[in-house]
Amino acid sequence: MGILIDRFDTFASGFWVTLQICFLAGVGALIIGTVVAVMRISPLPPLRAVGTAYVTLFRNVPLTVVSFFAAFGLPQLGSSANFLKVPVLDAIFSRLAIDLPYFRFFIIALGFYTGAFVCEALRSGVNAVSPGQAEAARSLGLTFTQNVRYVVLPQAWKFAIVPLGSVIIAMIKNSALSGFFGVSGSLSDAMNTLTSQEGLPLIPVFIGISIGYLIMTVPLGILLDQVEKRRAGAAR
Amino acid sequence: MKRDAADAVLYDAPGPRTRRITLIVSVVSAVAIVVGAYLFIYLPLERNGQFTMKKWGPIIDPANPLFDQLWTRLGQGFRNTLIAAVLAIITSLIIGTVLALVRVQLQSLRRRRYVGLAPAAAQALRALTRVLNAVTRFCVEVFRGLPVVITIFFVGRGLPEFGLDFDTLWYVVIGLTIYNGVVIAEILRSGMTGLPTGQAEAAAAMGLSPFQTTRLILLPQAYRIMLPALISQMVVVLKDTSLGFLIGYDDLLNVASQAINILNNPIQLYFVVGLIYISVNYALSKLAVYVQRRLARGRRATPPTTVAPGTQLETEAVVGTTT
Amino acid sequence: MSLKRIAAVVLTGALALTGAACGGDSDNSGGTGKTFEAGTTMDRLSKAQKIIIGTKFDQPLFGLKGLDGKPAGFDVEIGKIIASELGIPADKIEWTETKSAVREEYIEQGKADIVVATYTINDTRKQRIAFAGPYYVAGQDIMVRKDDASITGPDSFKDGTKKVCSVTGSTPAKKIEEYVKDKTTQIVLFGGYAQCVEALKTSQVDAVTTDNVILLGFVDQDPNALKILGAPFTQEPYGIGVKKDDTKFRAFINDTLEKIYADGRYAKAWSDTVGDVAPAPTGPAVNRY
Fold it and tell me: What is the ipTM of this complex?
């Protein structure tokens, strides 16, 4: 168990890198997911088609395959994802700016993959808004954009918060693939180095790595349960 | 379709002018997508020689000497993926059901007063249920919160250290079960607790014990209500079998990676593997939607005298949120 | 040295002869031709007519799983020879993939009876398992894109700009850390060399480093895009991993190696597999520690 203390640095920095991945990919996924969700409920058939295709694609492919295409397909297209070297952002998240692109590639993979699930969570929220609301808005003469912006989305967010939370938790867990796609120093990479390269015993490493993830997932899960319970209580 | 009806509320049925605009926008955006794909995806790939028969031959050309071998291997890998997924689903269902039963049971035991027992014994029993409750809760939270990658990794490498030596397949199955069993347990539990209290009260009034109530009244209904969610979970399991590559399980993805070492065509093979996953999982999710519809129809067809009105609403609401 | 060992050598030699004679008659004669001292690993494996050999599945020339599902390469040939010395025909061998990260565990846990997997002998590993051999001495080298003249050796990484790729849990990955300025910005690790080669070809990294023979395999596959520097900066003696306390089995494998150095089977195994890219080496002296 001494490993937990001796190698605290490794675990802590692994946690920090993983947290960065989750934050950046999470923000990306929320943006992508919202855009795609709006596309899917829009009046324009081609947008709807693109949105549906996007969701079908990313929901049914393992993240492993998506990450692979990000890490080895994007370079084929001549991109090192340099557009993610955003000036202010990369001061905080130093990994964004380094020459090795795999941190950026993985964020792209995780963001796009999670985006599909964010979209579905939002859409379930939209579906949960009583149709009367949108009907009333339309009878007031609101256009589609106004309707979505002022009436439907604000209410949909409320219904979508619990499924969205589950999506984010799933994303945090999915970030564990990072270590296998060239992101050095993340929790899952630390797991690899500590057990394989340094040959440390499995159990303490397992505990250390697990704590790293559980710190992120369990409080979120409990929070969601509370929200859900309160909501269920209010509905009754 | 139900969804279209719900969405159509947001805007008017398009008139002739809107339809014309829509058509123009559609054509323009379709052209834009095609041109963009050509410029930014096709051309760079072409330049890098990703469309040569050297790369695609073994995959699409039956005359290629490697074609048969490659597809035989991929077939084996696909079979292994399915085997792992099916086994993991079965074991997860079993573990999940048991865990859900235990948790619901403990929940109801907590309220029990144990009249007729000595106060000390009653106290002890109550403390015991409370401890068990906390333990199961802890397990659920921990296993639900851990990445499956981590679980599989440590199951595959840790269990043998304790002398538990199985086939690689079983490590994948155990790793998947630890997570999915807990998730299924939670799905079933929320299905059971979501049922109207009248169900349990009626069962109690008929003299069924709490366990009988759960087993005969609540669980079957929970299964029925949660079937679509359970099928969605199968998609998750099927995708997660791909993590078996970590511990050297020869699933579809791993077999493809091995073939890449020989054929040198990573982009092409992963593309094909992606397509295979999409088609299988798409079919599964369609099945989930179909089952859900049939269930909804089945409910509506039942005469209202046998099902309390509350149940119907509840069911629809639950099903609505799980897809 | 000791009388016992000489006896063992003579005995195995004699047995191999009888074994070969039997094998010549019919392939399904089982293990009848080979008898070993009761209670030894050789005896157990020979009687069971089954051996699990761990090797790489993704290493061109040494251990690469073919599309027919069977591994091929120099390591695989060495494994087959050892099995045949135990009286086990090639089709009774169970091959299992031992990635760099799991080799010690596989041996300790008995998931592989021997591991022949470009397995560098070193003291850390000797604490957990034992090595027979070496049967080949490789050296860590660097592979770059053919048109790249900016990398001349491991010291080229010291200025902190060049990026290098290697494989998780491997010795070369650890070694190269000594030469880089900043680990996080310069080293990327993947599960297999194929991914590294892909990253090198698309210019995401500037170099791939590992043992020269492995790199030669990749250069062989794509000589127009890749080249190897050809200046090994380490010595990597490849050994055969067995259980730590199994001295008798280790001695048996060492004897076998010495025997095949002499009778030409070693050279044949090499020319059948690595022969196209590198000339056959003379078998290095085994280390009976």
Answer: 0.84
